[in-house]
Amino acid sequence: MKIGIIGAGAMGSGIAQVAAMAGHEVRLFDTHSDAKTKALQSISTSVNKFLEKGQISPSESVAIVGRIYLCEQLQSLSDADFIIEAIVENLDIKKELFASIEKIVSTSCILATNTSSLSITSIASALVNPERCIGIHFFNPPVLMRLVEVIPAIQTGHHVLNEVVELISQWGKTVVVAKDTPGFIVNKVARPFYSEAIRIYEEGIADFETIDAAMTTHGFKMGPFTLMDFIGHDVNYKVTESVWKSFFYDSKYRPSFTQLRLMEAGYFGKKSGRGFYQYPKVENVGNNRDQMLMETIFLRIFAMLVNEAADTVWLQICSEKDVDLAVKLGLNYPKGLLEWGKEYGYESIISILDELHNQYGEERYRVCRYLKKIASI
Ligand code: NAI
Fold first, then answer.
1. Helix, strand or coil, per DSSP, at residue 85
2. Nearest Cα to 334, choosing from 188, 185, 220?
3. Closest by alpha carbon to 30, among 4, 13, 12, 8?
4. Does ligand 1 lie within 6 Å of residue 147's CB atom?
5. Residues 6 or more apart from 211 whose CB is under 8 A from it?
6. Choice among 202-216, 227-241, 272-286, 347-361 with the minimum mean pLDDT
7. What percent of the chain has pLDDT over 70?
């Protein structure tokens, strides 16, 4: 099977490598030739790392890179059986590309998008045959991240979904299937990790270090402020804003002025030398932290996360099993949120949320119907 990849940036180059490592011939196209050259360099570097670790043989490493063909024109993808688009995140540009690509490929060619925030249904609507369109959302870096969200549009054919799930699983990835809703699974469920942490900070309850420590103490690899600085406030703010707008301005997803101001100032985080923290970061050991306060902070963020995971299942965006898999593999959470919630006690989580709702009178703390349902079983 020949795979076409459009867009040779961070994601496209990684996906091209994943496909080539799975044995496919890959056609890689980008409107910028620099991007293609860079992509091939970064793929070679990454393949060499596999070689150095003894995970592939020297001949395999040569064969993998040899299976990737850089294309000068979109037309060169005409014999592809399967195309994944990873170009700029812009609906009009993506729709235009999908309409052009459909004209040059065979009628059986599947057309997938790696979009992280746009509606797959809307992209599919640009096609004469929208049943062939689907979302395949890889995580960064695609070579190392095991999770892939597969998102059928409402037009997507069943056979297309089945074929895609089978193929991506063959590539060694763990697939979760998500409904075509904003943020899919991972980018929706993760929102409270950032937003509730910012609320706690904005209320003057604790500083960044304490809130971060409250979460890392419970097994999260990075605290929310360190993680937002790492992702970049330009990216993280835009995802938050996009999820909020796309959920028809549901107030629980509302972005914060705190993060907006960082973005406006160009304090994007680690990559710009300043975000919530200054970089290089001075590690504050902080042995004398208030343990009770840290536990309260953890429970507040944790309860919001479990509620959001429950909401995702309630809206039938995905199954219980997949929401847990998605946070473990896509976000590196120490446990699945529903399994963790069950362990802690769903009733206790509901009490925390009810207490917050009483105190603040805000919609964001409303308990999801599904959480009440599973608590009563
Ligand atoms: P990027 O900016 O690194 O790469 C995009 C590439 O597409 C560039 O090389 C650009 O020259 C090329 N391009 C733009 N318009 C084009 C067109 N009309 N035809 C052909 N090539 C074109 O972007 P990145 O980060 O790789 O993202 C690509 C897509 O993947 C976006 O839709 C993004 O939302 C999504 N995504 C990004 C993730 C990330 O963490 N960076 C994670 C998951 C999805």
1. strand
2. 220
3. 8
4. no
5. 197, 200, 201, 223, 224, 225, 297
6. 272-286
7. 99
- Do the Cβ atoms of 304 and 196 come closer than 8 Å? yes
Listed residue (12, 163, 182) closest to 85, CA to CA: 12
Burial class (CB in 10 A: 0-12, 13-18, 19+), 41: exposed
Nearest atom (ligand 1) to Cα of 13:
26
Cα(160)–Cα(194) distance, rounded to whole angstroms? Answer: 35
Query: Would you say the CB of residue 84 lies under 6 angstroms from ligand 1?
Result: no
Task: Give 251-262 pLDDT, tens digit per residue.
Answer: 999 999 999 999
Q: How many other β-carbons are positioned within 10 Å of the β-carbon of residue 211?
A: 27
DSSP conformation letters of 127-190: SSSGGGEEEEEE-SSTTT--EEEEEE-TT--HHHHHHHHHHHHHTTPEEEE--S-TTTTHHHHT
Half-sphere exposure of 325 (CA within 13 A, CB side): 16
Look at the pTM and tell me if it is higher than 0.85: yes
pLDDT per residue as tens digits for the range 167-176: 999 999 999 9
As a whole number of angstroms, the distance between CA 104 and CA 86 comes to 18
Report the half-sphere exposure of 213 (CA within 13 A, side-chain side): 17
Q: Is 262 in the pocket of ligand 1 (CB under 6 A)?
A: no
- Tokens, residue 294: 């840290």
DSSP state of 204: T
Known catalytic residues? 116, 137, 149, 187
Location of structure tokens 């890689």: 28
What is the C-alpha to C-alpha distance for residues 204 and 224, in angstroms, rounded to an integer? 16
User: pLDDT digit string (tens) for 52-73?
Assistant: 999 999 999 999 999 999 999 9
Query: For all residues of the chain together, what is the average pLDDT?
Result: 97
Nearest-angstrom CA–CA distance, 35 and 282: 35
Tens-digit pLDDT profile for residues 292-342: 999 999 999 999 999 999 999 999 999 999 999 999 999 999 999 999 999
Atom of ligand 1 nearest to the CA of 32: 11
Order of all β-strands in the sheet with 25-29: 68-71, 25-29, 2-6, 82-85, 110-113, 133-138, 147-152, 174-177
What whole-number distance in Å separates Cα of residue 338 and Cα of residue 322? Answer: 10
